[in-house]
Design goal:
- The chain is α/β, with parallel strands linked by helices.
- The chain has 2 helices and 3 strands.
- The chain has a 3-stranded parallel beta sheet with strand order 1-2-3, with helices on one face.
- Helix 2 links the parallel strand 2 and strand 3.
- The radius of gyration is 11 Å and the shape is globular.
- The relative contact order is 0.25.
Length: 67
């Protein structure tokens, strides 16, 4: 399964926490991940690395145009 995920800026104070919580789900189901946005790239990428997810299967995009 491929996942395309973008920033969840609407979460306010919960933004970092919720981006980090996604890592356990993503690492368990995704064969490839496309991440769009500053929070996905900072927080989810950091957590995926901690889970030992193969970072060669992650595509990091700055914004929707980059994706």
């Amino acid at each position: 399964m491929w996942l395309v995920l973008g920033d969840m800026r609407e979460l306010g104070d919960w933004t970092e926490r919720e981006h980090r919580l996604l890592a356990s789900y993503v690492s368990g189901v995704a064969d490839r991940v496309f991440l769009v946005g500053e929070y996905m790239n900072a927080h989810l990428v950091d957590e995926l690395q901690k889970f030992g997810y193969d970072m060669n299967r992650v595509v990091v995009c700055i914004d929707a145009l980059d994706a």
